[in-house]
Amino acid sequence: MKRRLFVATTISSALAACAPIGTALNNNAGFHKLIGSTQGLTHAAIGTRGLAKEYHERDISPDFPIDSLPTPTDSRYVELARNAFRDYKLIVDGAVQRRGVFPLAMLERLCNSTQITRHDCVEGWSVVAKWTGVRLSSILDLVQPRSDARYVVFHCLDKDDQGTPYYESLDMHQARHPQALLAMRMNNQPLPPDHGGPVRLKVPTQLGYKSAKWIGRIEVVGSYANIYAGGGGYWEDQGYEWYAGI
Fold first, then answer.
1. Are 153 and 230 in contact (CB under 8 A)?
2. Which pLDDT score, from 0 to 100, does residue 15 have?
3. 37 CB-near residues (< 8 Å, 6+ apart)
4. Residues 74 and 122 placed together within one structural domain of the fold
5. What is the pLDDT of residue 31?
6. Within a domain: 42
7. d(CA 232, CA 221)
8. How far from 217 is each of 89, 92, 98, 152, 208, CA to CA, in Å?
């Protein structure tokens, strides 16, 4: 069982890392069927049962590549950044008992977690950084998800060239993992705009594209099937794995 799991997940991760959007492999239905066939097994066997390794200050990487979609340039984000994000508010709604509105100052007061963890990109590189913020579970405790809540969807402030917004999702178990963090500081400094400021998700147990940047709203839902293309995330809608465990 362990051998089959290792082979399946190693193949799927390696192929995904070598198959950018637009390549013949990435557009091959058989390739995505192979990747998809390992997701449930990997999630069940590894899932969020363990913790990602935590490192020391001396291990922090000197450079952290800027990846994913470009930093937002729309007027809303530019104005927020110009004002040092003082007017930023994180909305948390959906299948919750108490809709939450969290200004940045409130999130700063709620800061309760710091981790030094490795960021593993699907493109094949890894770096170590220090992140400080609010455990996602703490926010969920405040809004109290209803009994029908199954997933947490992160709506972001960035869009691609066609105007499609970036989004991501976790199931409730992943969202309550002790290392799932709404990060507001990176390496002891306010989170830079290019790295997702003022608030980004950090999920060190999964590949980097799950750690969505520039979060504007968190929606708690019973299903993500009717959100955009229904894959559970921007890249997942284009064929990437929904569960991207490492």
1. no
2. 42
3. 8
4. yes
5. 45
6. yes
7. 11
8. 9, 6, 15, 10, 19
**243 in a structural domain:** no
Helix axes 29-45, 2-17, angle to 10 degrees: 130
pLDDT along the chain (246 residues), means of 10: 37 41 45 48 52 97 91 95 96 98 97 97 96 98 98 97 96 98 98 97 98 98 98 97 95
* Cβ count near 163 (within 10 Å): 6
DSSP 188-229: TEEPPGGGTTT-EEE-TTB-GGGS-SSEEEEEEES--TTSTT
pLDDT score at 46: 45
pLDDT at 49: 59
Is 223 within the bounds of a domain?
A: yes
Residue 244 contacts residue 122 (beta carbons within 8 Å): yes
Same domain (yes/no): 147, 29: no
pTM: 0.82
In the β-sheet with 100-103, what is the strand arrangement from edge to edge?
100-103, 89-94, 215-221, 151-159, 165-171
Which structural domain, as residue segments, surrounds residue 172? 53-238
